[in-house]
Each structure stands twice: as structure tokens, then as C-alpha cells.
Amino acid sequence: MALSDQEQQLLREIEESLLADDPKFGASVSSASRFQDGPETGRLTIRSLALIVLGLCLLVGGVALATQSLWFVSLSVIGFIVMFAGGVWALRTPADPSPRQVDRIQHPSQRGRMGSKMEENFRRRFEGQ
Questions:
Q1: Considering only CA atoms, which of 91, 78, 86, 89 is closest in space to residue 53?
Q2: Where is the composition biased (Basic and acidic residues) (predicted)?
Q3: Do 48 and 86 meet the contact criterion of CB atoms below 8 Å apart?
Q4: The pTM is what?
Q5: Per-residue model confidence as pLDDT tens digits over 11-52
Q6: What are the backbone dihedrals phi and psi of residue 30, each rounded to the nearest 5 degrees, phi first?
Q7: Nearest partner of 51 among 95, 88, 15, judged by Cα
């Protein structure tokens, strides 16, 4: 589940305050934050989906026809390789930023209001129950 822009910003603010309070903790988790700052991936394209479906069909067809000849076992192995390649392709395709994320570039003066707005929404959710 992806976080909204406001939640990501609040998470960054919490992280910065934790790192400022405890530098030893910051040194221990700095390697983990390097992986989070990279580009987002995992966009499922038509081509990667087609490769996954084709690989699955080859895999199932090869297993179903394996009683006819042992050569069909190689067809299922090829199907697995094609399906795996489609999955890797889908994971390596960079995700495009949604228009909502591009439009929500905020000024530093709006950061304080964003945190209080999130707190208000959080309280409203749990007080209504």
C-alpha cells in the first residue's frame, strides 16, 4: 500500500527528528535509507504482462503434454524462464510519477500546516468510531 504525499512528508520529518536526536541510531540506519531514496520501480506494462502470461501458458502446456513426450518438459522449463523474465522486466521498469504527485510540490511554509492537517484527519477517523 503506497503512502500519500502528506504521509511520506510526515514520515521524512519524523525520520529527520530521530536522526537529529540520536546520531548513533542515524549511523546504524543510514544504509537502510539509501535503498528507500532510489527510483520507484515495479510498473506493470503490457509487454511484461504478455510475457508473464505467455510463460505461464508454456509452463502449463509443457506440464500437461509431458505424458506425450519428455521433450515437452523442456517446453515447461522455457515457459518458466519466459515468465520469470517478464516478472523481472516488470520489476525493473521505472514507475512514472502520477499527475497527483507532480501537482503537489509544496513550499516550506506549507509543511507545518500539512502535519497538523494529518493529525486532524487521524483524530477524526478514530473519534468517529
A1: 86
A2: 116-129
A3: yes
A4: 0.46
A5: 888 888 877 787 777 767 665 554 454 555 667 788 989 999
A6: -65, -30
A7: 88
pLDDT digits (tens, 9 = 90+) for 54-88: 999 999 999 999 889 888 899 999 999 999 999 99
Number of CB atoms found within 10 A of residue 128's CB: 6
Q: How far apart are CA 111 and CA 9, in angstroms?
A: 8
- H or E element that contains 93: none
Residues with Cβ within 8 Å of 104's Cβ and at least 6 positions away in sequence, in order, are 5
Burial class (CB in 10 A: 0-12, 13-18, 19+), 44: middle
Q: How far apart are CA 50 and CA 52, in angstroms?
A: 5
Q: Provide the grid cell at 75.
A: 517446453
Length of the chain: 129
Q: Coil, strand, or helix at residue 43?
A: coil
Q: Which three cell numbers stand for residue 94?
A: 521505472
First to last CA, the chain: 23
Q: Where are the alpha helices (DSSP H) in 1-98?
A: 5-21, 23-36, 46-64, 71-92
